[in-house]
Amino acid sequence: MSDARLTVLAGPTAVGKGTLAAYVREHHPEVWISVSVTTRAPRPGEVDGVHYHFVDDATFDQMVADGELLEWAVLHRTHRSGTPRRPVTEVLAQRRPALLEIDLQGARQVRESMPEAFLVFLKPPSWEELVRRLVGRGTEDEADRARRLETAREELAAESEFDATVVNREIPAAAAELVELMGLREV
Fold it and tell me: Helices 171-181 and 17-27, interaxial angle, to 10°?
């Protein structure tokens, strides 16, 4: 397995993609993890440039027009997020393992433009657990939760489009499985 392969991690809202990516970042510093741009407001504790690059609509529009994004999508019918292209190509040129933590629409775009990418679907242990996690994080109002759960049903139905599935029962075990799929060894 090439160390320079791009791995894409996607799955429904509240499945733990960000938490899993943060765990991999902490325990596997050899893995480069992309920082997405987004037009949504930061959640409590999120830091610009670490969790996301928070931009306004005009800046995002310019990035799209200039072809600066590898992928981008409208999320939950409320905001846009995308992956800056240049950092991804630079890291792959350095032969470093790279991980994108993105949504289903973005994963489909990456599959189209980089068919060699390895797509991993992160799945909750159950629908009930996904709902519990979304409600438990307390970052969305009722209307947002309803929108996100509607999207989650569609996203869960796309699991077969991915090269592998990891069930997120607990973060350390899911991270170990993801890292193994990336061809890296646990430390």
Answer: 70
